[in-house]
Amino acid sequence: MSETIFIARNDQQEGPFSKDQLRELLASGRVTGATLCWYAGISEWGEIQAVFPDLQETAGPPSLENAPPAIQAPEGRVTMEILKSEFYTMPKICIENAEVVIEAGAMHYMQGTIEIESKMPSVGGMLKSKLSGEKMVRPRYSGTGQIYLEPTFGEVTVLDLEGESWILDRGAFLASEPSVAIGAVTNKALTGLFGGEGLVQTGVSGHGKVMVHSPGPLERIELVNDVLIVDGSFAVARTDGLEYKLEKATKGLFSSFTSGEGWVNTFRGMGSVLIAPVPNRFITLQLEFGGLRSMIRSISKG
Predict the structure, then answer these.
(1) Helices within the chain (DSSP H only)
(2) CB 95 within 8 A of CB 114
(3) pLDDT tens for residues 30-64?
(4) pTM of the prediction?
(5) Could you give the C-alpha distances from 236 to 6, 20, 35, 216, in angstroms and in order?
(6) Helix, strand or coil for residue 168?
(7) Among 138, 213, 242, residue whose Cα is nearest residue 183
(8) For a FRET experiment, which of 69, 134, 214, 235 has its CA 20 to 30 Å from that of 54?
(9) Domains along the chain?
(10) Omega within 30 of 0 (cis) for the link into 91
């Protein structure tokens, strides 16, 4: 077979080409299998795919419209679990080529190839941190390994956000997946100072898991155009749409003092509230006897 091949392109005869050159033209997409060709030895022009069927395997790639979907690299994974012993609870977070946000100072120890990144907050963020007691610097841990958080006598719960927004009590936030947006919510002055929730609280929203700390087991209360009154600061979290105020327990100031209730935290509207109405036994012991040692020391020194 002659190596002098001619092709018909744009109503023009082009060539001569060798078979290897024709293979390159096919691979580059400059010609197709339907392009007409001829060489000395055949009686008439014919399509390349018919004249040289062995060249079709080297043709250019198929159209992207018909291409199968690209195989995506496996996404990272974050797993949160709660290890319970007879006396304490320890949160554990496993990351596989992933990232997690953890409250500053909450890490106890970790194992694996993990990097920690902390970004300083703005001046406004630092001021809010001073006023509220909330930590505005929350490090990001990325890589693969296990992270163990500080053991606690309290309870730890994992919330699975599905697009909603929650406002957390001061000190309740422990960790979250990076898909969860973390912000600050400012309460009214009177409510923030005397309501027990603080001037600034942590807000979380979006999709993903959030690890929350509480003094006791959580109870979820649903409000449908209703009112929830809490005499104390054991409301751990509330959905963003609820109205939160510090109010008198009864209508008159004098009757508030005589009733013994004074001021209460009030939640109104439609949404959910997570409360820990009863501290667990370990927190109860801490509250009852936590100051006993310091009291004995002060007496002995006197």
Answers:
(1) 19-28, 48-51, 123-132, 189-194, 253-259, 281-289, 292-301
(2) yes
(3) 788 888 888 877 778 888 888 887 775 444 443 33
(4) 0.60
(5) 81, 75, 73, 10
(6) strand
(7) 138
(8) 69
(9) 5-61 (3.30.1490), 77-290 (3.60.160.10)
(10) no
